[in-house]
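stuck on this one:
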Amino acid sequence: VHKLISGVADNSTQTHYVTTFYDRQANDGTLSRLTQQVTFRWSGRYETELLLRAADYKVEQVYGGYDLQGFSDDSARMIFVGRT
């Protein structure tokens, strides 16, 4: 199986369109392809905090990773701790 991923980001809608191609090669050399298309939407820290507050959560902390380090531009993750 060969896998190729192609993505296009649309910053104005905070959307990422991802197409994944799976090429399967049989023992006789013939190829078949399966294509999957997925749309992702991302949100930033302050948009997420606003959505949590709108859902009656109080944001207590925002972390940048599973080791609970502070959130920054270099963080790989956004982890929110909130309470109702």
Q: What stands out?
A: The beta strands are 2-10, 15-25, 31-41, 58-63, 79-83.
